[in-house]
Amino acid sequence: MSHKTPNEIFNETKSKLQGYVTLYYFHLGNLCIKADPIALLSTTVEVNGDEMNLEEVAEISLEDDYTFAITPKGAKQVFPVCKAIQTEHPEFKMEEKTERNELTDEEEVTIHFTMPTVNENRRDVCMDYIKAKYELVTAKMDVAFTTGTAKMTASMIGLPAETVDKAKEKLQALYDQHMEMCNKLRDDKTKEVEDAYLQYHAEHAEQTRQDEEMQAAHSSQNVFSMNMKDEKE
């Protein structure tokens, strides 16, 4: 059995760390706060018994930061596309819009899928998810780094201590670099959740204010009507 060289061990550890960062990226991509196309990468549509990627049967665009605009490539694709997306993301709010295509003069269906509102409850759920996946991935990274360091040390037995230390420092720098990537992914997603929650809070507060003003106006009108009635009597 041949032993791996320090360089091979370094590259092996690097590959594992990259894989875990990518895994965390996809975990967070499936936590739909904004309309991120990554959330639809795994969506497949059944057409005539065959599984096809979503982009093969529909045009994917963004209506705004929180809404997908999906245009099926033909009327027969509308139902399969809706079914596929709703199956994978039942939390999306769906709305169909039909417009006439100016180029073809044919009716064209666009399906809007809006991300769920980030109220206080969803905010807490999202934060717990971000933390749980972060801890899961970084624990695997710790194992990969510790294992890589042990293998690196064993492969360099007999070499000068300075050479071994430099190799281990290089491995440490690699680990730190990938941890920073994970930290950035976590922090960016956390901010995305917080921004969406603040938007919800602001909209909710505005709606409450409008409702209170309407109620106050209604009460004033009732008082005015009662006064008018008393004066007539």
Describe what you observe in this structure.
By secondary structure, the protein is α+β, with helices and mostly antiparallel strands. It folds into two domains: 6-30 and 119-217, Ribosome-recycling factor (Topoisomerase I, Chain A, domain 4), CATH 1.10.132; 37-114, Gyrase A, domain 2 (2-Layer Sandwich), CATH 3.30.1360.40. 63% of the residues lie in helices and 16% in strands. The protein has a four-stranded antiparallel beta sheet. It has a two-stranded antiparallel ribbon with strand order 1-2. Helix 1 (6-29) packs antiparallel against helix 4 and helix 4 runs antiparallel to helix 5 (161-232). It is elongated and about 75 Å long.
Briefly say what this structure is.
This protein is an alpha+beta fold and 233 residues long. It has 2 domains: 6-30 and 119-217, Ribosome-recycling factor (Topoisomerase I, Chain A, domain 4); 37-114, 2-Layer Sandwich (Gyrase A, domain 2), CATH 3.30.1360.
The number of helical segments is: 5
Q: Report the strand count.
A: 6
Largest sheet: 4 strands, antiparallel
The residue ranges in which pLDDT falls below 50 over 5 or more consecutive positions are none
The CATH class of the largest domain is identified as Mainly Alpha
- What is the CATH-assigned architecture of the largest domain? Orthogonal Bundle
- Bin the helical content: 55-70%
Percent of residues in beta strands:
15-25%
Sheet with most strands: strand arrangement:
3-4-6-5
Overall geometry comes to elongated
